[in-house]
Design brief:
The chain is of the alpha/beta class and 310 residues long. Helices cover 32% and strands 17% of the residues. The chain is elongated and about 65 Å long. The structure holds glyoxylic acid.
Length: 310
């Protein structure tokens, strides 16, 4: 029985090597060279893979996302009926995401762009220093990623708030949940950080209405999915000064078209979906473990809840 890998050609061999290092007996097929469809029992795939294609494999037992997000696997037509999907929860994936969040929170908080502009103009001028302890950061999504970022921002002295669908308690984080909780948190967020899964409920959550609830001059960070942001609303909020700056790692579509206004916008800091990149060696143990569990019919790790959408 074989494992189908499907991702960018540039990383396919790294994935294969990492999985074989843990289980040299694995029969790994690199898409599109799947071989006999009956052989495939697990598919480990990333965003470009067409879920309709997976219906070709009659013995498929498991689909694994190559990242934390699974929206690419769940959107129509979705995985073949009855086949479980697992996502990745990984220490390095999580800590890299927190680094991106800290980098961009501190970039705006410490007025790095203004100081860089001053440097370019050889201007020696001290700007008013913002008070960290008076700065509130609202995190949308306090799962594996959001809770790690929350702890690290708290350690720096920020006031950290976290919003989730259902009530959740995290040490040192003021919790908000549900629709009313969202508005209450937004009204106090000097920084808004989106680390949510993309689901029908969270699509467009950063929109004209929610941006207007932020204190004027807030900063918006999105490293979740481009679909969380209504781009026209964010651009309008940047224009009006309601939002003072934004850091974006994710876009819809990706790659972001060359003529998109974000590229040249002075208040936009962009990275090309590079905030946190899966390291195959780091995640291989959970992938191999899940393949073994699927073969034995055991409970899977990091199983996606289809009803919740993540
Ligand atoms: C990256 O976008 C991921 O979902 O891991």
């Amino acid at each position: 029985m074989a494992v189908l890998l499907s991702t960018k050609a540039s990383v396919m061999q790294d994935w294969k090597r990492a999985l074989l290092a843990l289980d040299p007996g694995l029969d790994i097929r690199l898409f599109p060279d799947a071989g006999a469809p009956e052989d495939i029992e697990a598919a480990v795939c990333w965003t470009a893979h067409d879920m309709a294609e997976l219906r070709r494999y009659p013995n498929l037992k498991l689909i694994v996302s190559m990242g934390a997000g699974v929206d690419h696997l769940l959107r129509p037509p979705g995985p073949p009926p009855g086949i479980p999907v697992a996502r990745l929860v990984d220490r390095l994936l999580t800590s890299a995401m927190s680094e991106w969040v800290l980098l961009n929170v501190l970039r705006f908080h410490r007025q790095d762009q203004a100081y860089r502009a001053q440097q370019a103009a050889r201007v020696w001028d001290e700007l008013p220093a913002p008070a960290t302890e008076a700065t509130r950061i609202g995190i949308l999504g306090v799962g594996a990623l959001g809770s790690d970022a929350a702890g690290k921002l708290g350690a720096l002295g920020f006031q950290v708030m976290g919003w989730s669908r259902r009530e959740k308690t995290l040490p040192g984080v003021r919790g908000f949940h549900g629709a009313a909780g969202l508005d209450a948190m937004l009204a106090q967020s000097n920084f808004l950080v989106c680390l949510l899964p993309l689901t029908p409920d969270t699509r467009g959550i950063i929109n004209a209405r929610t941006l207007a609830l932020l204190p004027r001059g807030a900063f918006v960070l999105n490293a979740a999915r481009g679909g969380h942001v209504v781009d026209a609303a964010l651009l309008a909020a940047l224009e009006s000064g309601q939002v003072a700056g934004t850091a974006l790692d994710v876009f819809e579509p990706e790659p972001l078209p060359a003529d998109h206004p974000y590229w040249a916008h002075p208040k936009v800091v962009m990275t090309p979906h590079a905030a946190s990149i899966t390291i195959p060696e780091s995640v291989a143990p959970q992938v191999v473990d899940n393949i073994r569990r699927a073969r034995r019919g055991e409970t899977l790790l990091n199983l996606v809840d289809f009803a919740a959408g993540y």
